[in-house]
């Protein structure tokens, strides 16, 4: 029979071990990508835990106008999508979270069901729309298409944030003579900073990572976004393994995201769960 | 400054009637308190006057002008909310001046008025702080300041003291009474606390289930409750009741139920028989709980140094005839026949 | 009768909603109807403006294609396996994170990394790690003596789909963990302490208190993840290419649309995917009783 204290101690050890194992499981693949990105030539094919810090792949990528262009395209697409989605979602969230009107539930449900659409189900229709707007093979097509999944999601999350504010704020503003527009812009918007930051970051990541639309609506290399560019990197011959450059590219496009995510850790978690748990 | 008149005021939420036909006249400069149990519609009625709720029927006049279709900010009313509803991202000064800012008043003018109001409320030193840096009492003052700065004709208070602890509550009660005296402005005040109602009001409006049960000065309500509900609601500890048949010799014409206030009852050697159950010593007085023969629990008050028998002791209760209230089968007060 | 406030509020609400509604009509409702419309035609990607109506023939043609059924069974297998494993793993890690243990902050941060990495990048990283000759996983397994020669993971018929499942579990378990952890933190400590004082053993506390109270959080997480898994495209596309071993219904539909230029047939396949996801959503919402709040 183990004493209570000894049992607790083994329990702590077991938990510590489980934590360590989980951390390794989640981090190791990314570490391995970083490790491989610093290896060139023959080194790449040796299993070596410590990197050699060879920057050859990074230099090559930085000199590749298509790669730099893809990063730029991704930044443009993801930030435009995020900005538009946040703006429209803020208006909608005010209506859905603060105002009373018949049909509110139906509207909320409609938005929610849009977020469940499989992307492939709108692919041919979206293709028609984009051709009709003259946006085929243009990054603008992606900004438009990405609103399909960023907008319902941002509306949903911002609405649940909006509901957290005391209703009396609206009433005080009303007594003070504010129109709905002024109530939103002068009272709620300044208070929504943290909510906008976390929701925006989630939308940005979703847009940054999208693959299917980007693969389908963009035809030429110079207009591609980063995920497609990485997905399509290939060696000069089928016997060449482009994993060095691919890993370097992966590190470059992922590092900023990871840094942002770690900085905004708490806010992201509240954003991810705001819609789901309370909604 | 203005009078307030409600005529047949009604409010329905879907099928639920919250306010059913309230008629009320409030004179210019009067301090009126709405009291009633929770759910009686007192806050709804206040919010209708404020312009935060539509009228489902009836009308509202402020200063003789119809207001039921006028926007809240144009009614000449200001409101202090239960939770204060201060804007968290604005300083105290901006919180107070925001209504004026919204109205497009010049900045210098806003600053002057804000300072004036802050001095009156003794929060002049706090103008640069944010609401989260203030104590409960200070927030309360800012909330009042925000209402005050608009120089409203009518002040509305929605349970403004319920978030404060007992000491501050007394202090702010005095403060609000002082403001009413200095400004002479019409005030309507909602509370569920009858001490606030009795101490602040010129007149009290007792509401139940969306109807007015009685309107009168605190003294009138205490001395002459119109019905059983008001009798039991006003006064603490509440009035003791018993069926008229159970209290021999105290009957009143037409009364099926009798009531006696705890402070009117004396321990005596004869009278209504009861058993002493429990004594609570509050320090400044004692509350005595007794069980009548029919099982009802009554309360009476005794002086702090009064000689009270032990629990379990048989006792007799006596009170002056004039302290007996009678109620008919519908709960209406029965007039004491003029002797 | 006056309804000034209500009227003003209603008008404002629709004005504030208008931009989002217009955008969603444009990018969701219209394309979806257009896809449905095209599914009834023989339209071709190369020349999308000339087509004739063929009724429901495209739908029948999809159902006649053995590859469609293969994709469907792949998709269902992938969904059940990955969501199942993620749920169990998610609950375990969430429970771990909910305790005061050393390294908790580290774990909480590290769990976000797989989630933040683009799926394409994750796919590439795992493709590299699973490489038959130079992959680190084969190297480790050989070193440990588990296998003698490096496995070609994606080429083995029995393994390829499991690899996709495994990588998906790595990518999306964090999402599960975060949702379930949020649910855990809403459970009042006092309830569990009361049970502890009453001498209820730990596993019983978990089964009869924690788990039932977690039901809504787990339900929502399972719903989101299932709908995501059913429409999965990028992971399989990058890791498996056009291999039939790992083809999902989304890849099948896109192939018909883009690679084979069959807009009509592809749209019909897309519409089948839509119905599949919609059906799953309805079933899950009913099954998990998500519309009812949890007790307590």
Automatic annotation (TrEMBL), chain A:
InterPro entries assigned to the protein according to its UniProt record, in alphabetical order: BP-dep_ABC_trans_perm, MetI-like, MetI-like_sf
Family matches, as Pfam families: BPD_transp_1
TM annotation in the entry: 12-32, 71-94, 106-127, 139-158, 187-208, 243-264
Membrane protein topology class: Multi-pass membrane protein
One CC-aspect GO term: plasma membrane
SUPFAM superfamilies: MetI-like (SSF161098)
Top-level taxonomic group: Bacteria
Single GO biological process annotation from the record: transmembrane transport
UniProt keyword list: Cell membrane, Membrane, Transmembrane, Transmembrane helix, Transport
Location of this chain's protein in the cell: Cell membrane
Domain ABC transmembrane type-1 stretches: 71-264
Family named by the database record: Belongs to the binding-protein-dependent transport system permease family.
Protein name, as recorded: Carbohydrate ABC transporter permease
The species this protein was found in: Tabrizicola oligotrophica
Taxonomic lineage from the root: Bacteria, Pseudomonadati, Pseudomonadota, Alphaproteobacteria, Rhodobacterales
Automatic annotation (TrEMBL), chain B:
Matches recorded under Pfam families: ABC_tran, TOBE_2
Positions of transmembrane segments: none
GO cellular component: ATP-binding cassette (ABC) transporter complex, substrate-binding subunit-containing; maltose transport complex
Keywords: ATP-binding, Nucleotide-binding, Transport
Regions annotated as coiled coil: none
InterPro entries in alphabetical order: AAA+_ATPase, ABC_transporter-like_ATP-bd, ABC_transporter-like_CS, ABC_transpr_MalK-like, ABC_transpr_MalK/UgpC-like, Mo/tungstate-bd_C_term_dom, NA-bd_OB-fold, P-loop_NTPase
GO molecular function: ABC-type maltose transporter activity; ATP binding; ATP hydrolysis activity
Domain ABC transporter: 4-234
Highest rank taxon of the organism: Bacteria
PROSITE patterns linked: ABC_TRANSPORTER_1 (PS00211), ABC_TRANSPORTER_2 (PS50893)
Similarity annotation: Belongs to the ABC transporter superfamily.
Protein name: ABC transporter ATP-binding protein
From TrEMBL, chain C:
Keyword Transmembrane belongs to the record: yes
Domain of life: Bacteria
Family annotation (SUPFAM superfamilies): MalF N-terminal region-like, MetI-like
GO CC terms of this entry: plasma membrane
Keyword annotations from UniProtKB, A to Z: Cell membrane, Membrane, Transmembrane, Transmembrane helix, Transport
GO BP annotations, alphabetical order: transmembrane transport
TM segment ranges: 12-32, 76-97, 109-126, 159-184, 269-288
Kinase in keyword set: no
Chief place of localization: membrane
Gene3D superfamilies in UniProt: MetI-like
Name of the protein described by the UniProt record: Sugar ABC transporter permease
